[in-house]
What we know:
Number of strands of chain B: 4
Distance between the termini of chain A: 28 Å
Structural class of chain B: alpha+beta
Number of domains of chain A: 1
CATH topology of chain A: Rossmann fold
Largest sheet of chain B: 4 strands, antiparallel
Number of helices of chain A: 7
Number of helices of chain B: 11
Order of helices and strands of chain B: HHEHEHHEHEHHHHH
Shape of chain B: elongated
Order of helices and strands of chain A: EEEHEEHEHHHEHEHEE
Strand order of the largest sheet of chain B: 2-3-1-4
Strand content of chain B: 5-15%
Largest interface: A-B, 25 and 23 residues
Oligomer: heterodimer
CATH architecture of chain A: 3-Layer(aba) Sandwich
Largest sheet of chain A: 6 strands, mixed
Strand content of chain A: 25-35%
Shape of chain A: globular
CATH superfamily of chain A: P-loop containing nucleotide triphosphate hydrolases
Structural class of chain A: alpha/beta
Helix content of chain A: 25-40%
Amino acid sequence: MIVFQKVSKIYDGCTALNNLDLTIKAKEFVSLAGPSGAGKSTLLKLLIGEEKPTRGKLFLDKQNIHLIKEKDMPKLRRKIGMVFQDFRLLSDRTAYENVAFAMEVAGATDKEIKQDVPQLLELVGLIDKLNQFPHQLSGGEKQRVAIARALIHRPSVILADEPTGNLDLLNSWDIVRLLLKINELGTTIILATHDREIINNLGRRVITLDKGRVIRDEENGRYIL
Amino acid sequence: MLKTAIWRILKSGWQSFIRNYWLSTATVAVMILALFVIGGLALFNVMTQAIVENLEGRVDVSVYFNKDTEEAKVLSVRQELVELPEVKSVDYISQDEALKNFQERHKDNEVLLQSLQELDQNPLEPSLNIKANEASQYESISNYLAQDRFQGIIDKINYKQNQDIINRLTRLTGNIQMGGLLISLFLGLLAVLVSFNTVRLTMYTWRDEISVMRFVGASNWFIRGPFMVEGALYGIISAITTIILIFPILYLISPKITNFLPEVDLLYFYQVNFWQFLILMFGVGILIGGVSSLIAIRRYLRE
Lengths: 225, 303
């Protein structure tokens, strides 16, 4: 469960999030909508501890995120899977190694890695591209590697920041379907996007942000601005 | 657990080095240049050292004793001198030897030799040739010999005649050594800075990767480790290449230098001190590579 209590984030006098109150239950699939600069990315950055709130508190599974020490941050990041618009894969490692890296940093044994990585790449439909480097993969394939990597620690939450922003319609829907499938398996998904088409077709909870405030929060919501 | 982590860090550093061979090659090339400068400077210093020693070796001070001085007395003075810390060596030249040397030196000069034969006794004085450890020490040796107790037996000390040239030599050798040291320090620093910057630039290209590693939950050491391994690898490869490259270069230029300065044989010196050179190159290379990486990476780790 994720709870925002009166959270504000101010960058050099510019308010990115303004007194935000928000609760996201476990296993929910939530879309964050809103124009660029509405505060979607800031909200995600606060969740992974990349930024600290200027005011207010923020909890993930009852743990106050901004009280976590820098040296314990890696543990938090292993609890949250992150997917980005620009994929953020390690360019000099193969698909397999990119996913394995996330396990290596957590100290998994070679045996566990050999067992889990192919399973996950199978789940995202890339079992035949294990040894390709990112530059040999299409945008949709890269994003699927990134999702496999985000899943490797069996996180309770996946944050997807404009995951379809660089993809064509067909690939975008592949990625969204994959996220829905992951959600069905029990992982909370927070999908930040300004793709009207996707939000309207999802039929899930939609939180619309504008100028750092929640202007609409509806179950089975639509993209309205 | 720790063993696995270290193994993974080593493997990852090696992989990054190999897979980005173009970047690695460029960085290694710059570091080879730097190590070359440092190695060259070390050899240059050996050479100036030899030149200075050579010049200093050519200077001595001779003490001439009165003709009737007993040999035992001259030898006791010699013994005293040998015990002085400034003195490197003292050669005794007896009257007979002095005569022999004289004849040898002037063997083409019939007139001189004939006039020498007409004398019924040896006109030359016994002497001591003194060599000091350093050119600046001749003055104190000369002062030592100027003591009253030597007055009766010593005829003359040729330090006064040589004083000017000795002083000039002292200054010259001092300048050569000082200049060599300054140039070495300056060029060495330059070399270190250039390779430091190159490694930093290399690491700069990895800044996005570093943020990715942070996102997937890598601890700082797990991120830093491979980059330091990579930096150290730059150092090791550059050191080995430099060490090998120095051989053919010395092979070509060493004989030319030996022609010019007979007592300097750089190739021989390099062979004899090979292991010291190897350690110097490895040390400097690994230090520059590893430390540069460490410093460069700090910026992207947000500590």
